[in-house]
Design goal:
Elements (H helix, E strand, L loop, with lengths): L1 H22 L4 E36 L7 E3 L2 E5 L2 E41 L7 E4 L5 E2 L5 E5 L12
């Protein structure tokens, strides 16, 4: 049994590690944990997550290839030509391999991204509005004032929320 596990681990881990090493040049990470408020993320790479109650606005999404399509599960949705709005409870999303601009508004938001980009986060002003961390660093608490940061090696990405 142990031998089968080791073979399976080798088959799964080594190709993934090789691919990650190729793609990792300049890539960073973003982790949003139990956030309540507004999270604006602009980047290139993959982003996925969950909103307990709230809205996901995909302001733009341009996939890197013809096979990448966003996957969102929610109660109410409207999507067309690379943008959309998804609202409700238990909203789960995945935007694979591409350039994206999204806004998450709600409570108990968890999201992860790998690639390059920027985040602008504003909490609701409660006792615990959650946190976010970039590039494996120390978590930053969300506050009522806007907090911004970048993940990955930056070229020209900047945070500019649309109204």
């Amino acid at each position: 049994m142990r031998k089968v596990f080791l073979v399976l681990a080798a088959v799964l881990v080594f190709p993934a590690a090789a691919l990650a090493a190729d793609a990792a040049s300049g890539d960073g990470s973003l982790a949003v944990t139990h956030a309540s408020g507004t999270i604006f993320v602009q980047g290139r790479g993959v982003i996925y997550g969950h909103i307990d109650t709230g809205t996901l606005m995909v302001l733009s999404y341009q996939p890197d290839d013809l096979t990448s399509v966003p996957a969102v599960s929610s109660g109410k949705s409207k999507y067309s030509r690379g943008s959309g709005v998804y609202a409700g409870t238990d909203v789960r999303f995945l935007l694979p391999s591409g350039k994206y601009t999204i806004e998450l508004i709600g409570t108990d938001i968890d999201a992860s991204a790998v690639g390059r980009g920027s985040i602008l986060a504003t909490g609701l002003g409660t006792f615990d509005d959650g946190s976010f961390a970039v590039n494996g660093g120390k978590p930053q608490l969300l506050t009522r004032g806007a907090t911004d940061d970048v993940f990955g090696k930056q070229t020209t990405t900047s945070v500019t929320p649309t109204q």
